[in-house]
Specification:
Elements (H helix, E strand, L loop, with lengths): L11 H12 L4 H5 L3 H18 L9 H22 L10 H11 L1 H36 L4 H21 L4 H17 L1 H4 L3 H11 L3 H4 L1 H4 L5 H19 L5 H11 L4 H4 L1 H15 L5 H16 L6 H31 L3 H14 L6 H16 L16 E8 L4 E6 L4 E5 L30 E6 L2 E9 L8 E7 L5 E6 L6
Parallel strand pairs: 1-7
Antiparallel strand pairs: 1-4, 2-3, 2-5, 5-6
Helix pairs in contact: 1-4, 1-5, 3-4, 6-7, 6-8, 7-8, 10-13, 13-14, 13-16, 16-17, 16-18, 17-18, 18-19, 18-20, 19-20
């Protein structure tokens, strides 16, 4: 039998060459010693690595895979060195050339690492750009919704912009963030651009909070971009509400005066209030004076609640409030007249009594008192409210009113003249009861032995309506009488009490 060729003498350079060639990951060291199966194993291991690593991912190759592959390369180098130590080279003329080639081929895995890092960086850039694009899309879609609906999405998009800028400051996506923020601000403030000033207030207030998270320095001019727009929106929204009779203008004007006290918009607040007061004063003489009085009264209270950091403006607002209050007070007379004409006698009584009480020196106070009396009479005798009473007094006909009741009473009368007076209770008089003392022959004030409290007044010819009511007591209804007064007669009115009322 032929014997195997003797092994080649040990040669360290050959071992180094085989080891270096195997470190390339291509198994070339096994190729030069004709170990084709082991070379194939190296190719398979490298192919597996490439399948795991490609395409490049921002997260890179899993650490366990890299460690296993490096261990494999070291084992292949060590085993190749052991084989090459006593095995002749087949494909290269000398061990030195093979070693030199092994050193050169080390550039293959090194270059692969460099290329992979570049691909990984590009994958990271694309990932960040995709993230930026998704945030941009979120802003675009949100711009077509109301701010209340889209606020959460706006905040999410802003968080993405902030993370790109802070966590990846050198990325292409981060470099585009400043321009995206300009678009972001303009989109959030879309209602302002559309002149929907009331709707613009919430988003503009939100934009003023953005510097808390993004930083004023980083935002630059954007940090103050919403200020003038918010001031304009607050003014325009409040002015529209004020002129339209709304009630929410005070909070908006108040916020404007507090937040932007020196702005041009704040300087327009007092003129707008003054115009509203002028309009209210003019409306007192219109078709609905009661509504005008109510508006002026509310306006006075609301204006007094406005902050005024600027001394001149605060004084002017105070004068506006005073004028609204005074006009409301004096306008109460016109309101009472309107209520009387509309047959709202109960309201007219209250209104005119309030007017007389609050305006002791007003020229219409005396007539207001007369109208209050006539309205109270008309509550019991509606015919008494056919015409508005005047301040006339006196007449040619004598009318004596006696009190045949145990109560102090007030006598009210209206007709050609209007007035009222009080009578003391009748001592010894009692209430009359139905079915016993009241009958066909019943005549009150007819007991000659009694002293009836009485008062004589003089009235003009015509119809006068009387109402007698107890000044104290519960459940006692007023009594009434209609007297048609003619010349040449003396008239007597008698007030009495029944057990079921007058």
């Amino acid at each position: 039998m032929p014997t195997a060729p003797p092994p080649a003498p040990a040669q360290p350079w050959r071992a180094v060459a085989v080891a270096l060639l195997n470190l390339s990951g291509l198994g070339l060291g096994y190729a030069v010693v004709r170990r084709w199966g082991l070379m194939a194993v190296c190719w398979v291991a490298t192919a597996i690595l490439l399948l795991v690593a490609l395409p490049a991912d921002p997260d890179g190759v899993p650490g366990a895979t890299v460690v296993l592959y490096l261990i494999f390369l070291l084992l292949a180098a060590a085993h190749g060195a052991s084989v090459g130590l006593r095995t002749r080279l087949a494909l290269l003329p000398s061990a030195l050339i093979a070693a030199a080639l092994g050193v050169v081929l080390l550039a293959v895995p090194a270059g692969g690492v460099v290329l992979y890092d570049g691909a990984r960086d590009e994958a990271t850039e694309q990932m960040l750009l995709d993230r930026l694009e998704r945030a941009d899309k979120l802003v675009e879609v949100s711009g077509k919704q109301t701010f209340q609906t889209a606020e959460a999405d706006y905040r999410r998009a802003l968080a993405v912009y902030g993370a790109l800028r802070d966590d990846h400051p050198g990325s292409r996506a981060a470099q585009r963030v400043p321009d995206r923020l300009k678009t972001y601000y303009a989109t959030v403030a879309t209602p302002y651009a559309q002149k929907n000033y009331c709707s613009a207030v919430p988003p503009l207030k939100y934009l003023r909070t953005v510097p808390r998270t993004m930083g004023r320095k980083e935002l630059g001019d954007l940090s103050t971009w919403p200020d003038d727009r918010l001031a304009t929106s607050l003014y325009e929204c409040a002015a529209a509400s004020l002129s339209g009779g709304g009630a929410d203008w005070t909070s908006q004007f108040g916020e404007l005066l507090s937040t932007f006290p020196k702005s041009a918009q704040a300087g327009k607040v007092e003129p707008a209030v003054r115009t509203a007061v002028d309009k209210g004063v003019k409306s007192v003489g219109g078709d609905d004076p009661c509504a005008a009085v109510q508006q002026l009264s509310s306006l006075s209270t609301q204006v007094r609640g406005l902050p005024g950091e600027q001394a001149g403006q605060a004084d002017a607002l105070g004068r506006d409030a005073d004028r609204a209050s005074q006009s409301a007070s004096s306008g109460t007379y016109a309101c009472g007249v309107d209520q009387y004409k509309d047959k709202n006698f109960t309201e007219a009584v209250t209104t005119m009594n309030d007017f007389a009480k609050n305006n002791p020196h007003h020229k219409n106070r005396a007539r207001a008192q007369k109208i209050a009396i006539a309205a109270e009479v008309a509550q019991t005798v509606p015919a008494a409210g056919k015409r508005l009473p005047t301040t006339a007094s006196g007449g040619s006909i004598s009318v004596t009113v006696k009190n045949d009741s145990p109560d102090d009473i007030t006598v009210l009368y209206t007709g050609p003249v209007t007035g009222s007076f009080n009578l003391k209770a009748c001592g010894g008089c009692t209430s009359y009861s139905f079915g016993s003392t009241l009958g066909l022959g019943f005549k009150p004030c007819s007991d000659s032995g009694k002293h009836y409290p009485q008062r004589t007044i003089r009235l003009p010819v015509g119809t006068t309506y009387f109402v007698h009511k107890a000044r104290t007591g519960i459940g006692k209804s007023p009594a009434s009488d209609t007297a048609k007064l003619s010349p040449g007669y003396v008239y007597t009115e008698c007030a009495y009490t029944t057990s079921l009322g007058y």
